[in-house]
Amino acid sequence: MGEDFAQGWRDALASGVVPDTASPKADVTLRPDAGRRTPSEPANHPLTILFRPDPHLWDGRYTNNAWLQELPRPLTKLTWDNPLLIAPERARQLTLRNGDMIRLSLGDASVTAPAWIMPGQAADCVVALLGFGERHAGTVGTGAGFNFYPLSGRASAPSLQKVPGHMNLACTTTTI
């Protein structure tokens, strides 16, 4: 920043660049066939389930807060529910649409919940948001959503199965 740090800092903020901090230039050459290559079909990997805390309700401690239930989730824009997030490739394999019911099983435990198709999600991965489906969470939170906690901590391989039924999910954006 030079001898006068305050002035150097103001100059960097004004220009958007801190002088002499650029990475060295990298010369990269592509393989000759790079433009002709097509992505291969995804391998049939075993299914992975990720249990994640809901971004608003966390682990369920804020389930009875109606304002937090009503907030749209960052990626799905869903409110009030926690469907199983599934990749488009896996949804095509199971002929699923948003809201179709699926059963997620691990060993002898299973939870049936609606599916929500998440573009960009890995084909061999499903995401279950925790913090919902509480039995005694107050007037707002009791019975809202699906409880995936009984499936967590199990070592058996997960499996998905489409089951009859459909649930309309509250979403703040238009979906196809």
Please write out the topology.
Blueprint: H1 5-15, E1 48-53, H2 66-70, E2 78-79, E3 84-86, H3 88-93, E4 100-106, E5 109-117, E6 125-130, H4 138-141, E7 158-166, E8 170-171
Parallel strand pairs: 1-6, 3-5
Antiparallel strand pairs: 2-8, 3-6, 4-5, 4-7
Describe the fold and architecture.
It is extended and about 65 Å long. It contains four helices and eight strands, in the order H-E-H-E-E-H-E-E-E-H-E-E. Strands 1-6-3-5-4-7 form a six-stranded mixed sheet. A two-stranded antiparallel sheet has the order 2-8. It has helices at residues 5-15, 66-70, 88-93, 138-141; strands at residues 48-53, 78-79, 84-86, 100-106, 109-117, 125-130, 158-166, 170-171. The termini are far apart. The model has no long low-confidence stretch (mean pLDDT 86). It has 176 residues and is of the alpha/beta class. The protein has a domain at 49-171: Barwin-like endoglucanases, CATH 2.40.40.20.
